[in-house]
User: Fold this.
Amino acid sequence: MTDSVLAGAQARPAPPIWPRLRRGLLGSPVNIAITLAMLALAAALLPPLLRWAVFDAVWSGTPQDCAAGTGACWAFIGNRLRFILFGLYPPAGQWAAGLASLILIACAVLTAIPRFWGRRLGLLWLVTAVSTLLLMSGVFGGRAVPTGEWGGLPLTLMLTLGSLGCAFPIAVVLALARRSKMIVVRSLAIGFIELVRGVPMIAVLYVAMLIFPLLLPAGASIDKLLRIFVALTLFVAAYFAEVIRAGLQAVPAGQREAAASLGFTPWQNLRLVIMPQAIRIVIPGIANLAIGILLNTTLVSVVGMMDLLNAAKTSASDPAWIGRYDEAYLFVAVIYFVIAFGGSRYSLWLERRAGPR
Amino acid sequence: MADVLRPDHQRPGLLIRISEIVGGRPLEQVGLLFGVLLLFAFLADNGVASMAKLGIAPGFGFLSSAANFEIGESLIPYSAGDTYGRAILVGLLNTVLIAVCGCILATVLGTALGIARLSGNLLLAGFVQGYVEIVRNTPLLLQLFFWSVTIRALPGPRQALTPFPGAFLSNRGIFIPAPSGSLAGWLIAALLIATLLGAVALTQSSELRRRRIAQGALAVAALAIVLIAIGAANGSLTLSLPVLKGFNIAGGTGLSPEFATLLVGLVVNTSAGIAEIVRSGIQSVARGQWEAGSAIGLSRGQLLRLVILPQAMRVITPMLTSSYLDLTKNSSLAVAIGYPDLVSVVNTTANTTGQSTEALAILVGVYLALNLSVSAVMNRYNRTTALRGMHPR
Assistant:
C-alpha cells in the first residue's frame, strides 16, 4: 500500500497529450469561450504582423526600395548593422571590437558551466579583462581609440560583466560588514546599501556625471566612461551585497562551529568553509542579478553613452533611413531577449540541479 | 568583593551593555569612523574649491531665485520665472502622479494576468507566459522607446481612434471625459478622500477600527453621489466630453503623449512582475486548503475570499511592496522620453544653476522619503495579513 502510494508520488507519468489538450482547451463552456476568444484575437493580430515582418518585408536594397514597400525594412538592419553593433567605433578597427565581444561572451559561457567553477576562473577573468581593454583601446590596430568612441554591443557587455566582476569583492566586504557585531562597521554598510538601493540608477549616473568631477582635487580629471563605470559598479555592489548576505544566512551555523572546533582561525573559516558554500548557494541569484544589470546598462544612453540601445536609436535617425525605429528596436530587443531569456533559463536549471540532492 | 559576588539576576552594568552595543574593537571602530569622516571632509573641501572656481556659492539659496524654463505639464500653476523651488515641486508632483496611477493600474492588470495564467485554459496561460517573458527579458528603456514610437504613430486628432464614445486616442495624446463646472473640484476632492480612507481602512489591524474607517469612506462616497445629483439638477456639474474642434481636440481631460507613453510602459512592465507574484502567491497555498474548504461546503467565491486569498496575501504583500518601489524608481526614466518628472526638472535645475550637488541631494532625499513612506504603508498593511502566531503583539 504505502509503497504504491510513494511510487505514485515520486514518478507520476505525464498524462497523455490529447486528453490534456482537450481538457485545457475545451474542458468547460467558459474554457471553450476563452479558447474561441484567443483564436479570434490571434486571427486579428497575426496576419497583419506576419505580413509586415515577413511577406511584405524588404530584405535587401536601398532606402527607396523600402519606401516603396509597406512592410518592414530589414535592408536597413543589414545596411546599418556595423553601426548598431559597434556604435562610433572606427570601422577599420571593428574586428578588434568584435573579437573583444566574442572573448567576453565565451568567458561568460565558460563561467556558467559548473565543471569549471574554481579559483582558476578568477585568473581567466583577469586575462579577459586585460585583453578586452587592450583590444578596445586599439593597440593592435595601430591607432588608439579613445573611450568616447567605444560603443554598441562590446560596450554593453563590458559594462555588464565588468561592473559585476569589480562589484564582487566590494559586495563581499559589504555583506560581511552588514553582519558584523561592530556597530560602526555595520552602520556604515547598512547606510551605503540602503542609500544606493533607495535611489534610481539614473540618479547615481547623474552623480557620476555632475558631482564626481567637482570632488576631485584641482587639476585632476577622470574619463567619462570610467566615471560611469565606477558609479555602475558601486550601484551593482549594493544589490550584489544583499544577494551574498542571503547566501551567508543560508549556511548552517554548525558549519562555522565545526570548523572553529577543528582549529580554523576566523579568517580561514570564512575563506575555506563559509564563503565557498555561501557563493554556491547564491549562484542562481547572481545570474538573475547579471540579467538585471544587462537590461539596466541601457540607462547609460541617458547620459550620452553609445551603448547597444542608443546605437540602434541613433541609426534610425540616419537621414537616408529615417524613421526605421520599429526595425531597429525589434532587432536589439531580440539580442537582449536571447541573452536575458537564456540567462534566466540557466538560473532555473541551476536551482533545480542544486535542489534535490 | 561585593561586585564579584553579584547575583546573576542583576542587570549587567552600563559598561557591559555599552560594549555589547559597540561589539568589540572600539579603538579600531573609532579609527574607521574618523577615516570615513576625513574622506568626506576631503571630498567636500574639493567640492567647495571647485564650485568657487566656477563662481558658484554652495547652499540652497538658488531655490528661491527665478527658473527661466517652461515645464510641459503641471498639476499646479507654473510658468517660467517662478522659483526653482516651485519647479522642483512641480516635478515631484508629476512623479507622485505617475507613481500612483501606475501602481493602481499595474495592480489591476497584473492581478488579472496572474489569475488568467492559472485559469486552466492552455492558450490563455501560454499567452500570459509569453507576455511575461518578453516584458521581463527586454530593457524597460527599450519598451518605453517602443511605446513612444507607437503613440507618436497614432493618427492625428482628425482621424483619432475612438475605442468607446467620448475617448480619443491620437498622436496629440489620449483624451477622456471629465467632470467640469463649479462643483467638479468638490466632487474630485470627495472621491479622493473616499479612496484615501478606503486605503487607510485596509492598513488597520483591528477589525472594529477597519469597519469604522470603511464606514467613513462610504459616507464620503455617498456625499459624492449627492454632489453629482445636486450638480446635475442645477447645472453646476456637467460631464465635459472631448470633441474635435478644428485641428485639435477640446474639452474633457487629456493625457499628454509623454505621460501616456510613460504610464503605458510602466504599467505593462510592472504588471508582468505582479502577474508572477499573484500566481506564486496563490500557488503557495497548500492544496489541502482548497480541498478542506470545498469539503465544508464553501462556494468557489467564498473559498477564494475566506480561505485562499488571506493566506496568499501573506506571500504577495512583501513582494508587491518591492514592485511598487521599483515602479516609483523606474518612473525616473521619464527623463529619456521627455516627461517632466522630478529627475528631469532636477537635471535641468542642476544644468542651469550649476548647483548640481544641492540639486542631486534634494533628488536623493526625496526618493528616500518616497521609498520609506511606501514601505511604511505596506509594512502596516503587511502586519494585518501576517501570521499572528509568529509576531507577538
Notes: Residues 1-11 of chain A have pLDDT under 50 and may be disordered. The radius of gyration of chain A is 26 Å.
